[in-house]
Design brief:
heterodimer, A: mainly alpha, 17 helices, B: mainly alpha, 18 helices, flat
Chain lengths: ~450, ~425
């Protein structure tokens, strides 16, 4: 039985247990449920949990141990000269055996290999049967034991609630586990990268060409991992994006919060927020297909030489994507400025725009800055727009009309397609990911701090 | 009193015109900013619709097909093996050439045969296998035209450009125009686009494979992130003591919401694929990665929903003797559920549009077959759009923007659901 059908069988088993536990508690209640400590449903749940949970645990253990054990047995039966191969060669042989066993094409076909594949298949079959039997037996056994312990005075509710509490606590640690997983996975691969390429070369090097030479005498593929051009490109595109997003976002937030009639606001605000809901691949499509050729044509008509994958096109479109972030965050903080401050300014005779410029905005400034920082971190981490509309060549330039590349673009190009997992080329992607993670996390922490300080001021 | 100094009111009156101009200017800046944002939205939508609406139609050509027994089954055996392996390419070529008997020369005759889609060969094979009595028959049938002619018929080929800049030569355009004049060309609704997987030929490519890939990915995401998200929100909001650990969890959740999506892709690649050995390109891994990405959204929305349930409800439940868990399960959760569902739908919509992390875990492969489970190789809708845009054929660009329309339709539907849910069930206490 495969794992999905086994899980289904376990579900069936635990439903049956629920019914049996429920029945037993009712029959023990001698006609009145108030004789029981817990409601019959809790007795049912108690039995069902015992039938399902230990068995599921065993299933997880069995599935993860089955493969390695079978492989070990098959390897010990291989000829001596194969067993004494270095580990990575041995792994290739094992892969071939697996391929043969599942009917795929393998590079080696010898009688010994075919026999090993046959054996592998048979052992896998035995393993699956053993796991199935063990899991179902454990489920039935634990369910029966729980069923036997049901008494009128049994504290079934407390036990059930404790296990629910355990589930709730376990799920709330997933957020921590995710962060730890990100940090560890990115950090480990980065450390391996920095063993091959020194940290200083990565951070201060001005040349990026990750193509590694396959042969030592190959020309022009030495592999240079200086990330300065990537950082510069990322900053250039993010800067252009912020040049669009901050004025437009801030002004529309001011207009919507201070000037617009409620009816207009109720229509326009959600419409602007649609911009935030559009998938980034759509923005990338628009940038690559419409905006970039348009800018190129515009540049040609005034005699400028514009690259077809200019930083300007990607930056402009990214800026539009970020408008709603800036505007809705600013809108929140502007609305949080107490009305009394505006009234005070009006009483002194200021016009509405003077009130906004001299009172509201200065009061809301920390919150706005926090929002802008969040938007910057968004721009730095944005991937699809730049993958589709920015270039691949790592030019170190501040000219927005030329093509630049970014950290995220390089991560995608380094990791899509076939690659072996040990070359510095692949590991470089993780080093870039580490930089990206650290920078965005730093910006985010600072931004949240600023916003929180500001909130406390008016509460 | 010789010279009276200006009174305050005169000072104010003197500058009033300038100040009012500044006021109007400022207000108009605001108006312009809003209009700019909206204008961009409109331009983008119009642009996508104009580029893509024609992909819902496909140019078909009426072809006189002769199922030549000499080519398909020379021995007249009629067994499936022979019928299945016959040279239907020759049948198609002969059919197209019969429309242009005057064309001479190897190269020209080869060009003529490219008038119809390469899929015609498989279509004929399928027809013959379904009904072997077709062998020897002559019929007229509509078959999809090749994508270049499709583009020509839809007016996407500029006939005034020099011949060398076009994918079609003058002669090819002439052939096609003659067919059109004979009434042998027709636009039909593009069913293939909704029923087929990816293909190298634009006229045979469809979004079904990608849509099913997205469906399975979201299925995994939903079935994991909803229970986990609700459980975490309940724990943090209702049960957890305020201490260092829960503080740490909260900071973590807020920060995870701002981590770039591509970093989650790196996590998926390093942990799920390299460490746990799960299959590459599978919706299972995609769903796991998107679960981690959407969890913060769901948790934050869930906590807001729980916060809006008034404490009096909790106190009343506890007062009549409910246990803490009973209070949560019977009273607080049902009241908070609409808000939690709204947050979940919005998280799912975001997951549906997400591309970058899926690129990292290999869901960019060229997959022809429609996936049938969570471990089959698959792509997702946004990844398909990205892949088609990378292709040189103009017809793929058209299909990419049609796929965008489908994707946006799904997103609008999901967001509308969230809005309805909020309007219908939101309670003010």
């Amino acid at each position: 039985m495969g794992s999905p059908s086994l899980i289904l069988a376990l579900l069936g088993l635990s439903s049956v247990s629920y019914y049996l536990g429920w029945r037993r508690s009712i029959s023990l209640a001698r006609g009145a449920v108030r004789n029981l400590h817990s409601l019959p449903g809790y007795h049912g749940l108690y039995t069902a949990l015992w039938a399902a949970f230990p068995a599921l645990l065993l299933l997880a253990i069995g599935v993860s141990l089955k493969g390695p054990i079978v492989t070990r047995i098959v390897v010990t039966d291989l000829p001596q000269e194969v067993q004494s191969l270095p580990p990575e060669r041995l792994n290739l042989v094992i892969n071939d055996i697996r391929n043969l066993a599942s009917g795929n094409i393998a590079s080696r076909r010898s009688p010994a290999m075919l026999a090993a594949a046959d054996r592998y298949m048979r052992l896998q079959g035995y393993g699956a049967i053993a796991v199935t039997v063990a899991v179902l037996a454990l489920g039935a056994f634990c369910g029966a034991m729980a069923w036997r312990t049901i008494k009128p005075g049994k504290r079934a509710r407390n036990a059930v609630e404790r296990s629910i509490l355990g589930f709730l606590m376990a799920s709330s640690t997933i957020a921590i586990l995710t962060t730890v997983g990100i940090v560890l996975s990115v950090l480990f691969e980065s450390l391996r990268f920095f063993q091959a390429v020194p940290l200083t070369e990565f951070i201060f090097g001005a040349e990026w060409s990750p193509q590694m030479a396959i042969r030592a005498d190959q020309v022009g593929a030495s592999g240079a991992f200086g990330a300065i051009p990537l950082f510069a490109g990322t900053l250039l595109i993010s800067f252009i994006a912020m040049l669009v997003a901050v004025p437009v976002g801030l002004m529309s937030a001011i207009y919507l919060a201070e000037y617009a009639r409620p009816g207009v606001r109720a229509v326009v605000k959600p419409l602007l927020e649609v911009l935030a809901g559009i998938p980034t691949v759509v923005y990338g499509f628009f940038a690559a297909l419409t905006v970039a050729p348009f800018i190129r044509g515009l540049g040609e008509s005034v005699g400028l030489d514009v690259a077809s994958e200019s930083a300007l096109a990607a930056g402009l479109v990214m800026g539009v994507m970020i408008i709603p972030f800036v505007s809705s965050l600013s809108d929140d903080v502007i609305n949080a400025v107490p009305q009394a401050m505006r009234d005070g300014a009006y009483a002194l005779g200021s016009t509405q725009s003077e009130t906004i410029k001299k009172v509201v905005i200065p009061a809301a400034l920390p919150g706005i800055v926090g929002g802008v920082l969040l938007a910057v971190s968004r721009a730095i981490g944005e991937t699809m727009i730049v993958v589709m509309a920015a270039g691949l060549a790592a030019n170190l330039t501040a000219n927005p009309l030329r093509a630049v590349t970014t950290v995220t673009v390089q991560i995608v190009t380094l990791l899509t397609g076939d690659q072996e997992f040990d070359s510095p080329k692949t590991l470089a992607a993780f080093a870039l990911g580490l930089v990206l993670f650290v920078v965005t996390l730093g910006l985010n922490v600072i931004a949240l701090q600023v916003v929180r300080k500001y909130r406390e001021q008016y509460e | 009193m010789a010279t009276r100094s200006k009174s305050a009111i005169e000072c104010v009156r003197g500058t009033l015109a300038r100040r009012n101009r500044a006021e109007r200017r400022f207000k108009n800046f605001g108006r312009a900013a809003v209009l700019l944002g909206l204008a961009f939205l409109v331009v983008m939508f119009v642009n996508i619709i104009v580029t893509g609406y024609s992909a819902f139609w496909q140019t078909h050509v009426k072809l006189p097909v002769f199922f030549d027994p000499q080519v398909i089954d020379p021995q007249g055996t009629g067994d499936r093996e022979t019928l299945g392996s016959a040279d239907y390419g020759a049948v198609v070529k002969a059919s197209v050439r019969s429309l242009f008997p005057e064309v001479r020369g190897r190269r020209n005759r080869r060009d003529v045969a490219k008038l119809v889609s390469r899929g015609t060969v498989f279509q004929l094979r399928r027809m013959t296998l379904d009904d072997p009595s077709l062998v020897g028959a002559k019929t007229e049938m509509w078959v999809p035209a090749n994508d270049d002619y499709d583009m020509l018929h839809k007016g996407n080929v500029d006939r005034t450009r020099p011949e060398s800049d076009r994918r079609l030569s003058d002669r090819q355009i002439e052939w096609f125009d003659r067919l059109a004049a004979e009434g042998r060309v027709e636009s039909r609704f593009n069913v293939t686009f909704f029923t087929a997987g990816d293909s190298r030929e634009p006229e045979l490519a469809g979004i079904r494979g990608a849509a099913m890939g997205s469906f399975f990915t979201l299925l995994v995401t939903l079935s994991l992130s909803f229970p986990l998200g609700v459980a975490t929100a309940v724990y943090l909001e209702e049960i957890a003591p305020r201490n260092r650990l829960t503080g740490l969890i909260e900071v973590n959740i807020n920060n995870l919401a701002a981590v770039p999506s591509i970093v989650f892709g790196l996590l998926g690649l390093a942990v799920f694929i390299n460490l746990f050995g799960l299959p590459r390109s599978a919706p299972l891994v995609g769903g796991l990665v998107l679960t981690l990405m959407t969890l913060p959204t769901i948790i934050i929305a869930g906590r807001a929903a729980l916060k809006s349930v008034p404490p009096s409800i909790r106190e009343a439940a506890l007062g009549v003797g409910a246990s803490r868990m009973q209070m949560i399960a019977h009273h607080v959760l049902p009241l908070a559920m609409p808000g939690m569902l709204t947050g979940t739908i919005i998280g799912m919509a975001r997951a549906l549009g997400e591309t970058a992390p899926l690129l990292m875990i290999g869901m960019v492969a060229f997959v022809v077959d429609v996936p049938r489970g969570v471990t089959d190789a698959a792509t997702a809708l946004p990844v398909q759009i990205f892949l088609w845009l990378d292709s040189p054929e103009r017809a793929f660009v058209e299909r990419a923007s049609a796929a965008i329309m489908v994707l946006l339709a799904f997103l609008i539907l999901m967001n509308a659901m969230a809005v309805v849910l909020r309007r219908r069930f939101e309670r003010r206490w």
